[in-house]
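Posting for a labmate who doesn't have an account.
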Amino acid sequence: MSESKKYRSRQSLADAWQNTFEASERTKKASDISWIVWLCENPDSPLAFHGAASLYNHDHIHLILGRCLDKKDEAFVIGFTMGNDSKTTGLEVVLFKFISFFLYPQAYRFDREHLRIFDLGFQYGRSRKFKGINSFDFSKIDHRVKLSRLRRFFDISDEILNEMNRRIQSVKGSA
């Protein structure tokens, strides 16, 4: 495991939040989200896909999965949350891929590489014993808890995340 991933695993959730979101110019507010992204990915939308998470939960899931904020990371996190929701159907996956590939605004649009990374996230989310991470109430936990403890709680392995990072890197340019 890389030194940065080891460090992140030992970080508290609060420290990871500050280092990732408060230090980033790319952090999104709800008002920044495109209407079609909101429609598909926000649990308050009447048309949201299974696995949809509030922005607050989505950001926490980024940290737990050790993902940053670029499109590859978004693809993995969305794939993970959809896969981790036992109600997600194959039709929803096909529809989401179509919409994110053809209809999302350019800033959010996935290309083939992103869709392969989405699939990696989906498969990993589907394989976890803990289901429904998208609906977990992160506001009720002590944010001083270490990421490694949260990962154990959600049945997420640092070793497998490290393997996912290698697989994500190998997807790049393999089209």
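Reply:
Got it, the structure tokens are right above this. The CA atoms of residues 72 and 175 lie 15 Å apart.
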